[in-house]
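User: Can you help me understand a structure? I only have the sequence.
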Amino acid sequence: MIKAILTISLARFLSMVRAFVILPGACVYFLTPAFAGLVPFPLAANQEGIVSCAEDPAIQYNIYLPPGYSTNGPPLPILYTLNASGGGMVSTIYTTCSNLNIIAVGIINSSDSTPWTPILRDFYAVPRDIRRRVRFDPTAVFVGGFSGGGENSYVFSRFWPQQVSGVFTMAGWLGYLNWGASVTYYSTARVQTSLFVARASGTSDTGAAFYNPYDSNFLASCGATVHDWYFGGGHVPPPGIVQKACLQWLLSNRMPPGPNDEALAAAQAQTWRAEAAAGDTEEVLSNCIATMMNQPRSWHELEAQLVLDDLMTNYDSFRLLDVSNLMPASTSFVTNQYSSNLQAWSQNDYVSDLLYFYARGAAHNGDWARYHCALKLLTGIGGSCGDRAGDVCYLLTNFSYAAPLLQIYQQNSESSLVNISVSKDTPGLSYSLQSGTDVVNGTWQNRVPINSNDADAVWSATIDPDPGSPVEFYRVAITPNRVSFLPWPDNPPGQ
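Assistant: Let's start by predicting it. Here is the structure, written out as tokens:
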């Protein structure tokens, strides 16, 4: 986070206060009511079809609601599906999901030939749409896919790590062939601890036979539990009997909800919303993040996610919040991105993963308020640059990010000079001071370049506002200052 102190004349300060009414410490949020009802959905029990997202109808997905589905009945498990050739796998998994009463969703745009941008766009948009429109069991959220869809299933599980309980991969793997020499893994390919992975492979599938042992070791280092099923055949989806066994195993191993969890979580969400409306937004943010990390794959996590979604709709207010100690670094973290001997990861690493994917998905969807809010939250995660530095630089390079407005208060009423002190805490970024007279429309001009040497933790300067100019506001803009980075691995050979 950027902290700044400005010294300015009392008259000018008071004029700024009149022009800019949202001041630090006075942020008020008006949130939607607690999640008490579902937005209307076009399908009913035992129906399958293509559905458009409510927020962006251009994004569609395939979904099947099994016979036992009801908006007023018990919540059902849900399985997101991905296919190497696109379109999802609802038709492949239809009968099994019908027999087990599992909601099946097909992410249409996820395929081997599709760039990451539309894939990650849909990974963000589709679950968000379903959270508001479909009743499901948050303790039983799974993702599965065939071949490259299996690889993308792992990516999906990292996109929503606190919500996905298990991965059902069909002839898909995580490993990357390092120029034919060995199998290596990105440290950012880590999956959330306690993830259950069901793998189904054909006995003559040479790719699965080669990669699975390596994947087993890597997944074990992440704290995931893996179980394998084999069937006669090659690189093809498993038959129905194997599908059923895999999904039953995932269902039996996930942590089911308690009898009162749904009601207790809803009551907690109501309390959070009331506290945020009363001005205690910083505490609510901290509680939501803590709940998502400490009570994953639960009703409590679902409600925390919904509250967080609502809090992140207004960046003008959100940027004034203090999130500087949202999740302090518990350990020093240094890793080789290509190392086969990876270190254990701490909780703050997983929080930075969660917020990075949220930010990237929001950007690909043009959800700029939540994109900027997620980047601000990243500044409150200790060690968040860590091995996510290249990915964060990718976001800043492609979508940009402006720091919050500088806090303003009077120190010397006799002087018209503005004294600025900026504390820099994000290595690898360039900083510049900007000024503007129109906060609403965001018309900013570069005023003073700031020394970009990362060793200079604090930068200060004194400037004299232009004589006769309108009221000016000041902020620090940050941009990447890296020559090269690896934002995302290429698709591995063979998928």
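Now, to help you interpret it: The CA atoms of residues 403 and 477 lie 5 Å apart. The chain has 13 helices and 17 strands. Let me know which part you'd like to focus on.
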